[in-house]
């Protein structure tokens, strides 16, 4: 049997019971309300405390960032306050001092040429895209009043006022120039056109760094400048060999048609400080294998011949050729060739 207020007494009794139940509910609500408010207030306080902690952390991070920035600025200012020491250079007055552009000036040969020209007292502008060149090769000149470094690819035109141009820009070791053969060809053709055009516009003398590779796989040893070579125009190294041959052709076309003063240096094997250890040529290969205590590798029968010159001798030759009145191609290298197996 189900029980309810409707089962008890008269209507007045039932009304009284309902009123009593309502009063009980109302009293219970008032008794529970403080507990509910306490829970809500506790939750709100926890949230506020969490937000406060987050704001404090963010404030600390912002403060630390500000202090780090201030410290970086202080370090930069300290660097400027401490005078940088440069290698000793000659003093030239404005009549004797030249503005000289060296393309590829952050590379192996280029950086040594820059050292020579800077020490002679000239203003030197280095242009390099840092494909094989390294900023550290010329970092000892950065900040000097006579030195300027421009990150630029000579495949794109360059507008600058100079008196002389040494055009050395091009990867020169097989692994580097075969990595991107199209780029190698463009550097030695389009890049050379841009430099010859610049020389024409500003009436500057220009030296083109060619290579002994224009002789290909020679059948005559040693090669004279009159030797036309034994070449393969579609071989794996052709991007470099033919690129340099075209560069020479362009040089003499500009000399004949536009009266540009050109000098062409055919550079043979060169070694010295700052050369790439992984450039794939015999000297660096031998040195690297010796340092790593590995067996020296000789490709082929070992009777093939090479000539080797030190980089400072090459720089002397480049400067002497630039300052001369001789305009035909010149071999720059050691005239004495050695068998590869005879060098061990």
Automatic annotation (TrEMBL):
<dbReference type="InterPro" id="IPR044516">
    <property type="entry name" value="UXS-like"/>
</dbReference>
<keyword id="KW-0456">Lyase</keyword>
<keyword id="KW-0520">NAD</keyword>
<dbReference type="InterPro" id="IPR001509">
    <property type="entry name" value="Epimerase_deHydtase"/>
</dbReference>
<comment type="similarity">
    <text>Belongs to the NAD(P)-dependent epimerase/dehydratase family. UDP-glucuronic acid decarboxylase subfamily.</text>
</comment>
<keyword id="KW-0472">Membrane</keyword>
<dbReference type="InterPro" id="IPR036291">
    <property type="entry name" value="NAD(P)-bd_dom_sf"/>
</dbReference>
<feature type="domain" description="NAD-dependent epimerase/dehydratase">
    <location>
        <begin position="100"/>
        <end position="324"/>
    </location>
</feature>
<keyword id="KW-1133">Transmembrane helix</keyword>
<keyword id="KW-0735">Signal-anchor</keyword>
<dbReference type="GO" id="GO:0070403">
    <property type="term" value="F:NAD+ binding"/>
</dbReference>
<dbReference type="GO" id="GO:0042732">
    <property type="term" value="P:D-xylose metabolic process"/>
</dbReference>
<keyword id="KW-0325">Glycoprotein</keyword>
<keyword id="KW-0210">Decarboxylase</keyword>
<dbReference type="GO" id="GO:0032580">
    <property type="term" value="C:Golgi cisterna membrane"/>
</dbReference>
<dbReference type="GO" id="GO:0048040">
    <property type="term" value="F:UDP-glucuronate decarboxylase activity"/>
</dbReference>
<keyword id="KW-0333">Golgi apparatus</keyword>
<protein>
    <recommendedName>
        <fullName>UDP-glucuronic acid decarboxylase 1</fullName>
        <ecNumber>4.1.1.35</ecNumber>
    </recommendedName>
</protein>
<keyword id="KW-0812">Transmembrane</keyword>
<dbReference type="GO" id="GO:0000139">
    <property type="term" value="C:Golgi membrane"/>
</dbReference>
<dbReference type="Pfam" id="PF01370">
    <property type="entry name" value="Epimerase"/>
</dbReference>
<comment type="pathway">
    <text>Nucleotide-sugar biosynthesis; UDP-alpha-D-xylose biosynthesis; UDP-alpha-D-xylose from UDP-alpha-D-glucuronate: step 1/1.</text>
</comment>
<dbReference type="GO" id="GO:0033320">
    <property type="term" value="P:UDP-D-xylose biosynthetic process"/>
</dbReference>
